[in-house]
Amino acid sequence: MLFRLPSLRAWPSQCLICHAWPARTLCADCVARFAAPTRRCDACALPVPAGVTRCGACLREPPPFDRCRVAVAYAWPWVGCVARFKFQQDPGLAPALAELLAAAPDVADELAQAPLVLPMPLSAERLAERGYNPAQLLAERLAPGRTRPDLLLRVRHGTPQRGLTRAERLRNVRGAFALDARHAGALQAQRVVLVDDVMTTGASLAEAARALRTAGVAHITALAFARTDPS
Q1: Where are the beta strands (DSSP E) in 128-212?
Q2: pTM of this structure
């Protein structure tokens, strides 16, 4: 099911975080306070010290995507915003979350360089249960006209990733993604952006990126609205 979301700019609203009225869905004060840029690893988006561009883990074992960018840490108050977007049937949050992601460091440049933007797919069972794909709604806001939800498919329905350990997450998504053979040629030697809503361990994004590499994709940038940081 595809939702056509109107622009929220012209409508008065209440800030989802501080409840100020009238305000935007995410007011400027809350964005400044809770979404300040953090120095993150270029490859996995985990926090790193100033002057470091790639963490030790990614130097030892580079992920299958070339770059990774996120807007915020998956912590309060963003956990509640994401839960409302993903699990409480509020797809109307997509414009506000996508705008915040687009404003994150380097994201605009990465989007400008990629002719194809691919949302992380849901299985048919999960899509039927939820009614929409949050990653697709974000991708369509980030790159209207360049989003291709038909290229990357989820071919195996697994247990929800929430609550699983890293090892369990890796097993759960192994072989879960494939390319639609009818359109896979469109990816040969291309630069693509892969979009998800939340990145926890990166297992799902990495497995999807491996499927894209088999189709000959030359460069993959992973984008996620929120990233779980080490506690």
Answers
A1: 152-154, 177-179, 191-199
A2: 0.89
